[in-house]
Write a structure and sequence with these properties.
This protein is an alpha/beta fold and 886 residues long. It has 36 helices and 31 strands. The longest helix has 25 residues. The structure holds phosphoenolpyruvate (PEP) and magnesium ion (MG). Keywords: ATP-binding, Kinase, Magnesium, Metal-binding, Nucleotide-binding, Pyruvate, Transferase.
Length: 886
Amino acid sequence: QRYVFAFHEGDKDHRDLLGGKGANLAEMTNLGLPVPPGFTISTDACRRFLADGQEPPELHAQISGHLARLEAERGKRLGAAVDPLLVSVRSGAKFSMPGMMETILDIGLGDESVDGLAAASGSERFAWDSYRRLIQMFGSTVLGIDAARFNDALEAAEREHGATGDLDLDADALRGVVADYKAIVRDATGRDFPQDPREQLDMAVRAVFASWNTERARIYRRQERIPHDLGTAVTVMAMVYGNLGPHSGTGVAFTRDPATGAPGVYGDYLSEAQGEDVVAGIRTPVPLQELERLQPAAFTELMRIMALLEGHYRDLCDVEFTIERGKLWMLQTRVGKRTAAAAFRMAVQFLDDGLIDVKEALGRVTGEQLAQLMFPQFDPAFEAKPIATGVPASPGAAVGVAVFDSESAARSDLKSILVRRETSPDDLPGIIAAEGVLTSRGGKTSHAAVVARGMGKTCVVGADALEIDLEHRHFTTADGVIVREGDTISIDGTTGRVYSGMIDVVPSPVVEFFEGRLSDDERQRDPVVQAVSRLMIAADEHRRLGVHANADTPADAKRARRFGADGIGLCRTEHMFLGERRRRVEELILAESEAEQDKVLAELLPMQLGDFVGVLAAMDGLPVTIRLIDPPLHEFLPDLTELSVKVALAEARGEVDEGDARLLKAVRRLHEQNPMLGLRGVRLGLVVPGLVAMQVRAIAEAAAARIRAGGDPRPEIMVPLIGGAEEFELMREEIRRVLDDVANTSGLSIRAAIGTMIELPRAALTAGRIAGHAEFFSFGTNDLTQTTWGFSRDDVEGSFFPAYLEQGIFTVSPFESLDEEGVGRLVSIAVEEGRAARRDLVIGVCGEHGGDPSSVRFFDRVGLDYVSCSPFRVPVARLEAGRAAV
Ligand code: PEP
Ligand code: MG
């Protein structure tokens, strides 16, 4: 097998094999740009190395062959005593991982060749500077010696010679530094710095391979969702020298501003330096514009090449270059990373310049980037040390005083952050009142997270280093910092960081735009808003998928509509039983006779009716899918342990409260080991039929009221958590009965499609039979993921998910991005068999995945009719649906 490829043998489309750096160096070579010659060792070799613990046996000879050609081309021998060739050895994976892996420069230098380099270049200082760089870089990355030891030695030498930086050290001083460095190597490794140039090269290649698996590289990949099994390529390139006197230097540059997307060339240049100095921040570079003055010819050439590269790649490029005695060399280019704002702006710029078409412009931005643009953000200029870090569950920036329960949040005159160990449905009012939510337990699909995302509220969950002391109303950080109720904290839902004190927040103009709160003038003036607006129009023109919203209140429904929703895909009715009404649900559960039950239900009916009228009005003319009650009843009752303790204490005092004792009995009766798998959803509807009848009646009467008011209500009724056709059939009969009853008494024709959620594997596997009865399906992928994997959606992220992510079992939580291989297969089966049974079956998804960009693309592929997501994700899903269609 071939593992090594000369630059001229590849091109930019071989990133899999050659890594981004290798592929783009090949491309630049083929474009005739001044690239120092070299070759790339493939990612295959790295994968073999990582699997076997040693390089493939063929590799040594293949490197020798390419090295010989390189030597012939340069007319120099690697590490020779006279005019030596030196090479750089650099990492480069398929997806760029800036600074995460190793690079070693000046390979080939030794005690003899250093004099040869001095003679050939005419500069002793340069030769010894290069040698000390090699030992420093090789020592720390290949030999694993603490980099601080080299830095300390260098600083000591600078002090000794009264120098203010490395540039002030002359050849003799650098000779001394090399001697010190060599002593450090001997001391740390028990052997001398390797003098054999080929041994240096082989060790460096191995070190780059191994650097694929350093801690920071793994963390970075997890964050960026880069698979752990790709491996890195290694490029070996003839050295050109930026440290060869004042007419030499090195720099990085961008063809446009990667932070804002503004046109113009941006970059940094550092005279008398080698590559790593710029990124490592050893000395402060000058802005690229200075280069025009310092080295006009090289500058002009660089501008020409950058324009050429941008035109060739038709995208923002960044480059690394070196100038050796006035001559420009290109060391690297890639399509540059950019902020979300820049991505939108540049896509539209390239579109307007005629370099790309609208489909490609849509391809240049992502839903994730749009989501980032939609959240208020902490002022990026602010630098502070976090007091804790949790799971970033709902992006944004929130500042407020810490409060420890819902009432305090609601009562607080100041903006507040609700701090809880975990949240329950009961915390909803607090979540609404607070600016943001911080919990020490729970993951991204925990209740707090789902609700917060739905409301566009900042949320950090699972900050498990926080000790929350509810009794004393404070929490303690790992460092022992105590934050009391009323103290101001700031939480960043994009990074999961928690800060003490206030950090400045800037609002998102993109949301203001979606909300319709920007004037034409303001819109014109903001290039990011302009770009977003244009690409949203393009996405809507192209998308096949409908985008509905998960919304339970008229306010949410209105917002969803402003954000472009085509209807409501999930109206969760359980949120309508909280707060004041919770007491009535308690009464319902405690009712001892049917008559008592009916009385409570009769009280609940007008309230539900009011809810539905509001939501139907807000979504007039568009479908509103209302889901019958889903959560287990015990969620409406007090906690078993707390109540037991309360009753026991009261008993001990001889003052038992009758009501509490009765309540305790009911709580015990309803207590389940696994409530998520217990009496909930359709099961609840079949066991307590009055509840469903009341809800359906409320829906039907709300529709009637809307019709009478001249509206166009389009309610649909959805049954949760069915496992098969029988459950659904029984439920549907009951629903029909009530609908007919209301139609008869009102004399109105009330049309409501009756369908079901598909959120259990058995439902997916028997979808054909279910579709015989159901008019629509909506995949509840939260529960479907939970029951397919057997992962508890409320517990996993704090417990074993970190280990799973670390071990690469998945690169992203399956609760966040749909597990296409497993859960996705169930979805495909259900779509296929459902449609086979009923051609016009309408199919959507309303789990959290409905707003996840990569999942949206999957749902488009398997032919769903729509996705449904929280109102704030609606624009994101619209954009992704458009992207999926082009
Ligand atoms: C689901 O399970 O995906 C769903 C939408 O229902 P809920 O999250 O309310 O259980
Ligand atoms: Mg569900």
